[in-house]
């Protein structure tokens, strides 16, 4: 029998559609901001990672324009082969100061940081210990290592200590503990202070992936600043594509760490550097967070107002303590129906999150707050969410 090289594609795609597990990609017709036009419809967006609204900030856009005029569009090569821009050096020094650490490195994306860095930090004879609910890019990075893998129940310090003890008793050469800073599906935070204490006892390395915590916690500086743990967390991975509103990944920590990553991370070594306009915009975004504290402040005012109202309406918002607020509904069907009704009838764009991103019985709509939302926007959204929630008997 002759092989049909592509037949499986049709079959796999059909399976996804048949089981309602396919993603529908909607199209934005204006920039990412709370009042947007999506698939031809005016909607209020409650589902972006652009927490501070910086994706449309005029100073950041201007910085990109200026760099575009001076440097052109593309970077031309990976940094190690043909150099990088003076802009990148400026950004890295600025970002390290902002984070309160020795050095930082601009990497392609937050995803690429986890792919490139984790497999270099540990290998055969080592232990890597990961929170059960860590982001998929961490899970993939861990899969690339030859280290022994340990997992602890979500945010459970007692379990973490057990795994640390086990790694210690097996004479692991190095131990790496890795956690999300803010967990993107539940909006809860890692107890990073307690994790750092536990790691201290065993000489373990602490790696926090703070892609969602940056821009929201610690005056925008992230979870390490929130807990005052500068110098006690060895690797901070981050993203410039979320709270900072632009694009890219970061590593922050010691000079040795950044030198090591420059020379070892395969995603850093083998993937092209950012366009200069993006580097300049990233630098401007950090300046905006430093000089305009109102964005972080507004984000939290909106978060506290919206969450209290949702809780009072009787929605289950789980353990959320950040601008990520899940409305936990239960079965995937009602979660999808609620999101769909909100979009079609009320002009509210919130994303349903279902298996495999969360357990089937914890299907939800994930709401994300934004500094640019007005009190009027929030009240309009609350009225709509209450109406649809009651109609579908969720509250
Ligand atoms: C979003 C996210 C990433 C990926 O970051 P990008 O810069 O979008 O590639 C990695 N880790 C966590 C925890 C994230 O939330």
From TrEMBL:
A molecular-function term among this protein's GO annotations: pyridoxal phosphate binding
Keywords: Aminotransferase, Transferase
Pfam family of the protein (one): Aminotran_1_2
Statement: the UniProt record of this protein carries the keyword Transferase: yes
InterPro entries: Aminotransferase_I/II_large, AON_synthase_class-II, PyrdxlP-dep_Trfase, PyrdxlP-dep_Trfase_major, PyrdxlP-dep_Trfase_small
Listed cofactors: pyridoxal 5'-phosphate
The protein, known as: Aminotransferase class I/II-fold pyridoxal phosphate-dependent enzyme
Species the sequence originates in: Promethearchaeum syntrophicum
């Amino acid at each position: 029998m002759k092989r049909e090289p592509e037949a499986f594609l049709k079959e796999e795609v059909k399976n996804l559609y048949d089981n309602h597990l396919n993603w529908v990609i909607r199209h934005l017709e204006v920039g990412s901001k709370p009042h947007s036009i999506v698939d031809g419809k005016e909607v209020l967006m409650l589902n972006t990672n652009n927490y501070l609204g910086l994706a449309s900030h005029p100073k950041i856009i201007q910085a990109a324009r200026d760099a575009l005029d001076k440097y052109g569009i593309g970077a031309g090569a990976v940094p190690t082969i043909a150099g990088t821009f003076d802009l990148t050096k400026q950004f890295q020094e600025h970002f390290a100061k902002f984070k309160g650490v020795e050095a930082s490195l601009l990497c392609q994306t937050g995803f690429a940081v986890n792919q490139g860095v984790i497999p270099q930090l540990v290998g055969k004879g080592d232990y890597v210990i990961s929170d059960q609910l860590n982001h998929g890019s961490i899970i993939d990075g861990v899969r690339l290592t030859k280290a022994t893998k340990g997992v602890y129940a979500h945010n459970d310090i007692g379990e973490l200590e057990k795994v640390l003890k086990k790694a210690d008793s097996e004479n692991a050469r190095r131990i790496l503990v890795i956690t999300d800073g803010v967990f993107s599906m539940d909006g809860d935070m890692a107890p990073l202070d307690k994790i750092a204490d536990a790691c201290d006892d065993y000489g373990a390395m602490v790696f926090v992936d703070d892609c969602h915590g940056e821009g929201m916690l610690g005056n925008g500086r992230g979870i390490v600043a929130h807990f005052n743990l500068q110098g006690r967390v060895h690797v901070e991975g981050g993203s410039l594509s979320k709270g900072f509103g632009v694009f890219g990944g970061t590593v922050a920590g010691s000079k040795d760490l950044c030198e090591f990553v420059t020379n070892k991370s395969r995603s850093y070594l083998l993937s092209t550097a950012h366009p200069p306009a993006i580097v300049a915009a990233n630098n401007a975004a950090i300046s905006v967070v430093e000089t305009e504290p109102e964005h972080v402040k507004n984000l939290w005012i909106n978060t506290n107002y919206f969450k209290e109202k949702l809780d009072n309406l009787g929605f289950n918002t789980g353990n959320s303590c950040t601008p990520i607020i899940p409305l936990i509904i239960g079965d995937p069907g009602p979660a999808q129906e609620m999101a769909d009704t909100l979009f079609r009838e009320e002009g509210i764009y919130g994303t349903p999150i279902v298996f495999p991103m969360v357990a089937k019985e914890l299907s939800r709509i994930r709401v994300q707050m934004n500094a640019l939302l007005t009190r009027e926007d929030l009240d309009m959204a609350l009225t709509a969410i209450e109406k649809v929630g009651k109609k579908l008997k969720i509250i």
